[in-house]
Each structure stands twice: as C-alpha cells, then as structure tokens.
Specification:
It is a single chain. A hairpin with a 5-residue loop joins β6 and β7. The protein is 46% helix and 15% strand. It has eleven helices and eight strands. It has three domains: 109 residues, Butyryl-Coa Dehydrogenase, subunit A, domain 1; 112 residues, Butyryl-CoA Dehydrogenase, subunit A, domain 2; 128 residues, Butyryl-CoA Dehydrogenase, subunit A, domain 3 (Up-down Bundle). By secondary structure, it is an alpha+beta fold. The protein binds flavin-adenine dinucleotide (FAD). Flavin-adenine dinucleotide binds next to β1 and α11.
Length: 382
C-alpha cells in the first residue's frame, strides 16, 4: 500500500486573478474608512457592496446567483480583504461554508431560496455546532430533534455561536431523539437544520470575550419548530455533512492573515536599517508567511480541481494559527511598548488586541490537538 502523503503542489495564480487583485485594491481604497485592524466588523452594507461586485459565492453556479469563477479568484478576494482588515463578518460564514453546504446537500427549493441571497450579501448565517461539554467532541451533541407533524421540534442549547445575535439563520447540528435507546454509534442520528433565528422558542444571550466585546453567544432552544423543508440533507447523515462543512471552514487563508497589519506595522517601525536581531526576527515571520501562503494557494489549486484537501487544510490551519500566535510575542520582544487596548499609540493597542485575540486562533474551527489528530489520521498513523 502506498504511504499516505500530503500534497502541496506549487501553484501560480493565473493572470485573471492578478487583474482582479488590482480591482479589489481600488474597491478597498474607496471603502478605506471601513477598514480596521483585526476586528472583523459586521457591516451589511459592505457585504451588499461586495455582493454587487460579484465577490461572494464566486465559485457557485450562476443558476443560483453565483459567478462560476475560479478558486484562485476567490482566493485573491479573501486575501486582499483580510490584509486590509475589511468588515467581512456579515457574509463570511455564508460564503465560506453555509452556501457550499446548501449547494451540496440542499433541496432545489433551499438552493433557490438561500443561495442567491447569500451571494448578494443579503443573508447572514452562523454555525450552531458547539455546546457546553461538546466542542471538540461534536459527536456528543445533546441538542435533540424530534419528528412531529409537518416538521421537527428542537430542544437544547449551543455555545460560542459567533455572530448569532446578528445572523438570520444558523445551520444547527442536532441529534434525532431516540426514545429509550442509548446511542451505540456516537455519530448516528446527527442531523442538520436551516434554522430561522427569529423562530419562537429561541433565546440568544451574549457571551462577552476577553476583549470585552460581544462576538459569540449561547443559544437556548425550547420546543423550537422547524418545518420539514428546512431539514438540510438527510436525517441521520448530519455527521458526514458537518465534517464536510468543517473542511470548508479550515481551508481559507483567514487562518494566518488576521494579524497581517501588525506585521506591516512591525516592519515600518524597524525602518530601512534594522539591527541584526530585528532583521532576523522579522525575516523569519515574513518567510513563514510566504510558505503558508504557498501552501494555501496550493489548497486553492486542489479546490479548483474538485479535490478534497481536508488533511492539507488541517496542516495549514495548525501551522497558520501557531504563526499568528507568535506575532504578538515577537512584537513585544522587538519594541518595548506597554500594551493598552484603548491607547492612542497604534502599536500599543495592536499588541494589546492581538495578545488578547491570540488564544482563539487555535481553538475556533477545531483545536490544535484535534487538528493534529486529523493530520495523524491523514498520515495513516492512527
Ligand atoms: C472565537 C471563537 C469562535 C467560535 N465560534 C463558534 C461558532 O460560531 N460556532 C460553533 O459551533 N462553535 C464556535 N466556537 C467553539 C469552538 O469550536 C470550540 O471552542 C472548540 O471546538 C473547542 O471546544 P470546547 O471549547 O468545548 O473545548 P474542549 O473540547 O473541552 O477542549 C478543551 C481542551 O481539551 C483538548 N481536547 C479535547 N478533546 C481532545 C482529544 N480527543 N484529544 C486531545 N485533546 C483534546 C482540546 O484540544 C482543548 O485544548 C468558537 C470558539 C472560539 C474561541
């Protein structure tokens, strides 16, 4: 048997992607007042403007409002937007994973109802997977769905749901209730629903993060009714579907570009003639970034070929988040600055914000240990 390996073929971005890059930079210049450091702001108008440009759902079929452009062109859009600190939150989850999930598993009616609106930047989705006591252990989900006349009734709770307080829909991962039966196969019964967050019985409460900001939430579901036509895919097939969705979540360049502006600021502060130690430290960060980017573009190449680069995406996410966690550490070592969130000094506030943000990088979308388990499996080691 051939030894399983990771593939990171060298890939060049095609000329049309480079042309698009210039267009994106123009657009970013026009919206300069909305760009910011590492905030990922929520701005529906900006998402609609991107939708008008045709920059959401770029690779989706035209039939559903998509643009049938290449994974490379999509890559360039995301890359430029992240580097500029654009407010992508209103559409990013939909573009990255909810839209592709609906296109893959949805009914014709669901595709027609949701996908064009997602592509227009008019609909915000969030991800209802994690719960108290089942984050990494997603198979331990305790939110239950019961079949009732005309639909399903859901009871349970979700935790850490990013943006739920501003989203229109959640793709909610539940288990079908099996009366009096113990789960033999822990993955059995998993089922996903397209849940309208305005439905009666939903209570969304804020969880304030380390930065004092309202980013994620807990959601309580009490006898929430979901009609039959909002079941996503097949009842009981949710485990396969949810792992596919996680692969979409892990394959994007947002896993190493969130702090790019901080790196740029460090280079500016070092000036044209840095001392040897500073040059070495910055050189290391820059070369690591170059390598991560090559790997990530290579993944875009595999997506373009219709391949499934799950394992490669796990490697990039693991290395990328390690890299982003190093940036604030190096920043503190190189230039003596007292970190202060609200400081007038840009560097002081950047250090504070990035230091407080850094722990999340290796937790969201699958923790470091979980990713390494996936990588080990990909290498045939477990
Ligand atoms: C900023 C942010 C945004 C998020 N947004 C969302 C969202 O929108 N929707 C959503 O559903 N979730 C979201 N999450 C939740 C995230 O997916 C979970 O926090 C993550 O999966 C870990 O789960 P947990 O918090 O329950 O920790 P646990 O699973 O309890 O893990 C605790 C520690 O134990 C380790 N561990 C657990 N199991 C194993 C194992 N089998 N082997 C080795 N080590 C293990 C973990 O690596 C970790 O270090 C978000 C999290 C963050 C930080």
């Amino acid at each position: 048997m051939a030894t399983p390996m990771f593939r990171f073929d060298p890939v060049e971005l095609p000329p049309e992607a480079q042309t698009l890059r210039m267009e994106v930079r123009e657009f970013i210049k026009e919206h300069e007042h909305l760009m910011g450091f590492s905030k990922g702001e929520f701005n529906r108008d900006f998402s609609r403007a991107m939708g008008k440009k045709g920059w959401i759902g770029m690779t989706w079929p035209k039939q559903y409002g998509g643009h049938e452009r290449s994974a490379f062109e999509r890559y360039v859009i995301i890359e430029e937007m992240l580097v500029a600190g654009a407010p992508l939150s209103a559409h990013y989850t939909g573009d990255r994973q909810s839209g592709p999930s609906i296109l893959r598993y949805g009914t014709e009616e669901q595709k027609q109802t949701f996908v064009p609106k997602l592509a227009a930047g008019e609909l915000t989705f969030c991800i209802g997977m994690s719960e108290p006591n089942s984050g990494s252990d997603l198979a331990g989900t305790r939110t239950r769905a019961v079949k009732v006349d005309g639909g399903y009734k859901i009871n349970g709770s979700k935790l850490w749901t990013s943006g739920a307080h501003r989203a229109d829909y959640a793709i909610m991962f539940c288990k079908m209730a099996q009366e009096g039966q113990q789960d033999v196969d822990r993955h059995a019964g998993g089922t996903q629903f397209l849940l309208d967050l305005k439905a009666p019985g939903i209570d969304i409460r804020p969880v304030i993060n380390l930065l004092g900001e309202h980013h994620f939430n807990e959601i309580f579901l009490t006898d929430v009714f979901v009609p039959d036509n909002r079941l996503l895919g097949k009842e009981g097939n949710g485990w396969n579907q949810v792992t596919g969705e996680l692969a979409f979540e892990r394959s994007a360049p947002d896993r190493f570009l969130v702090l790019f502006q901080m790196l740029r600021e460090m280079i500016r502060m070092a000036g044209p003639n840095p001392d040897k130690a500073t040059a070495a430290a910055l050189g290391k960060l820059i070369s690591q970034l170059g390598t991560l980017r090559n790997m990530s573009v290579s993944i875009a190449g595999m997506l373009q070929e219709g391949e499934n680069p799950n394992n490669e995406a796990a490697v990039v996410k693991d290395l990328g988040t390690r890299y982003e966690q190093d940036i604030p550490v190096v920043a503190r070592q190189l230039f003596q600055t007292e970190p202060e969130l609200e400081a007038a000094d840009l560097y002081a506030s950047m250090i504070a914000r990035s230091t407080m943000n850094a722990p999340r990088f290796s937790i969201q979308g699958g923790t470091r240990e979980i990713l390494r388990g996936i990588i080990a499996r990909g290498l045939g080691l477990r």
